[in-house]
């Protein structure tokens, strides 16, 4: 069956509207990824022509570079603690702000606002919060006669400081949870009330299953984002103290822009890409079974 001229025109319009994204993806994303993949098999330092070295960089990365596994461990630990915390706090905030109260829109705006603030300005704000002499946390601890730690200057507290800081952006996930909560049919809650269900049972049997697609989405996006943390560590600690906050993205950055080993940095980038892909696959493989799609 031949399509009408109007249908062909609408299809052409659709492709034209999507063309800026398609062109950007082909040249700025797919093209760059393909170039970096090819570059990872060469020896290139920004100043000399690349020469083919095969799998040498991957061998060095996996068996010789101790900083690779150290940075992967630090990054994984950060993701392991920060992602569940942001999921839980985001859901709690969404449930609190889902109430029909006067002025609730103002509170929703206040809690979401930190998510849209410039990241660099936020980082400098947290540097002041974590200051051991006059920072907010240690000032509060002094009220209880407790000597606060040197948050960013201590090997034991530097990484937990970043985990605490990750809660600053919980408003983004909160907004998605809030949309999911408002999409749950009220008839389900009314039926549960008639059946004599208490709040905990209603939450476990209705709210969580109906929110499971939203939770799953926030989980996947949270893992991807946490494994790519860079700005906080670069500005606040520069990977220290004693590399206790030496994230994998920092290792890529220092390798490429301080040592000028661009080809080796490309191989590191592909390792991070595969690691994120592997964790995402595991989450989809075992987590999607728990997701309820109504």
Largest sheet: 2 strands, antiparallel
Strand/helix succession: HEEHHHHHHHHHHHH
User: The CATH topology of the largest domain, please?
Assistant: MetI-like fold
Q: Return the CATH class of the largest domain.
A: Mainly Alpha
The helix tally amounts to 13
The shape, in one word, is globular
Topology:
Blueprint: H1 5-39, E1 42-43, E2 51-52, H2 56-63, H3 66-96, H4 104-112, H5 119-129, H6 136-143, H7 158-166, H8 170-182, H9 186-194, H10 199-226, H11 231-236, H12 248-257, H13 262-287
Antiparallel strand pairs: 1-2
Helix pairs in contact: 3-7, 3-8, 3-10, 3-12, 8-10, 10-13, 12-13
Which characteristics define this entry?
about 290 residues, mainly alpha, MetI-like fold, two-stranded antiparallel ribbon, 13 helices, about 0% strand
Describe this structure in words.
With 294 residues, this protein is mainly alpha-helical. It folds into two domains: 1-43; 58-288, MetI-like (MetI-like fold, Orthogonal Bundle). Helix content is 69%, strand content 1%. The chain contains 13 helices and two strands; from the N terminus they run H-E-E-H-H-H-H-H-H-H-H-H-H-H-H. The protein has helices at 5-39, 56-63, 66-96, 104-112, 119-129, 136-143, 158-166, 170-182, 186-194, 199-226, 231-236, 248-257, 262-287, and strands at 42-43, 51-52. A two-stranded antiparallel ribbon has the order 1-2. A hairpin with a 7-residue loop joins strand 1 (42-43) and strand 2 (51-52). Helix 3 (66-96) crosses helix 12 and helix 10 (199-226) runs antiparallel to helix 13 (262-287). The radius of gyration is 24 Å and the shape is globular. It starts with a helix and ends in a 7-residue tail after the last helix. The model has no long low-confidence stretch (mean pLDDT 92).
């Amino acid at each position: 069956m031949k399509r009408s001229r109007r249908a062909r025109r609408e299809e052409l319009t659709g492709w034209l509207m999507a063309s800026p994204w398609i062109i950007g993806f082909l040249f700025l994303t797919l093209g760059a990824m393909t170039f970096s993949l090819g570059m990872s098999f060469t020896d290139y330092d920004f100043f000399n022509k690349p020469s083919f070295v095969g799998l040498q960089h991957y061998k060095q990365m996996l068996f010789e570079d101790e900083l690779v596994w150290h940075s992967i461990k630090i990054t994984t630990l950060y993701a392991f603690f920060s992602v569940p915390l942001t999921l839980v706090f985001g859901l709690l905030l969404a449930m609190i702000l889902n109430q029909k109260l006067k002025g609730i829109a103002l509170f929703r705006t206040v809690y979401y606002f930190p998510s849209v603030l410039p990241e660099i300005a936020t980082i400098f704000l947290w540097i002041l919060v974590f200051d051991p002499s006059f920072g907010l946390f240690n000032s509060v601890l002094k009220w209880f006669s407790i000597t606060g730690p040197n948050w960013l200057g201590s090997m034991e507290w530097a990484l937990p400081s970043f985990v605490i800081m990750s809660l600053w952006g919980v408003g983004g996930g909160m907004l998605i949870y809030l949309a999911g909560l408002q999409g749950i049919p009220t008839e389900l809650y009314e039926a549960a009330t008639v059946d004599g269900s208490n709040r905990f049972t209603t939450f476990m049997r209705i709210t969580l299953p109906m929110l499971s697609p939203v939770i799953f989405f926030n989980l996947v996006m949270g893992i991807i984002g946490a494994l790519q943390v860079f700005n906080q560590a670069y500005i606040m600690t520069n990977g220290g103290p004693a590399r206790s906050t030496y994230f994998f993205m920092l290792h890529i950055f220092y390798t490429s822009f301080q040592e000028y080993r661009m080809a080796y940095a490309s191989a590191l980038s592909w390792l991070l890409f595969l690691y994120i892909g592997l964790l995402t696959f595991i989450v989809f493989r075992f987590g999607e079974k728990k997701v309820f799609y109504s």
